[in-house]
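## retry 2 of 3
previous attempt timed out at serialization; input unchanged, resubmitting
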Amino acid sequence: MNKNSRKIVTSYIDPDMDGIGSMYAYVEFLRKKGEVAEYYFEGTPKKEVGIVLEKFKIQLKCANKVSKDDEIVIVDNNELNFIPKGITQEQIIQIIDHHPRRPWLDNNTKVNCQIELIGAAATLIAERFKNENIEISKESAILLYYGIISNTMNLKIKLTSLRDIEIATWLKEKVPELTDEITKEIFIKKSEIGDNIENEMEIGFKNPMVKIKWSIGQLEIANAEEFLLKYESEIRAILDRVSAKNDIEYISVNIMDILNGYNILIAGNKKTADLLSENFDFFKFKNLKAKTTKFISRKELVRVIAERYKK
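## retry succeeded, writing output
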């Protein structure tokens, strides 16, 4: 690794709160270690990112472009198909992620990998500041904190580790503005999706790691049952349309009530309901809809299905 080379920190296209927070803060970390670093992303960050940026008056200053001479660090992702266009595999020198390791890395000795299956990549970045006793800016602390809070549904889902909880507490102690009331306000604003339901669901692609034609979306909603009274028929129409357009055999959307801590799963057809019932005993479907008090994220569902139906 050439310390004088420019390092570009990136994530996947259309990054979420964890990706943006990890990018932003890791650039700060690298600069404080004497490196030349910038972050770069393509597409539009998820809605929650904009809410947090506006709330805390934080501005993003993304690099204009990536050149062929840049060294690439990927955070919150290790799937090559999801990185910004124009970046080559040969440029990638480091990955910091919390998703399952992709096969291209199995025999790759060039890339320095930190892949740990915990709640958020932001936890891994924040730990670097803490463990090396490097002062973290208010802005990086805020973005990392909400990366963790967003990914773990306020530290409630099963994938939340003790490390996520401890580092979120550490970050919160550094910024007095990080209150439970503001977090609730952000969650409520995040769930006001209006006409952007299909975009927010992220339902338009088949999972490449499984042998079945399967896709699952997710909506993170305050007061999910009230939301469904208004939008359930529209959601079902989206599932039907996307399934036909993309040749998806098993399709569903996981709706997480981010205030009250329960799930409602909408299956697009009976085959999907049967598949999910067979693999998760806490889903009991009636009219292709299942409600559970077990708070479970899409990531957890994907990991089970990916393991049982892997290619």
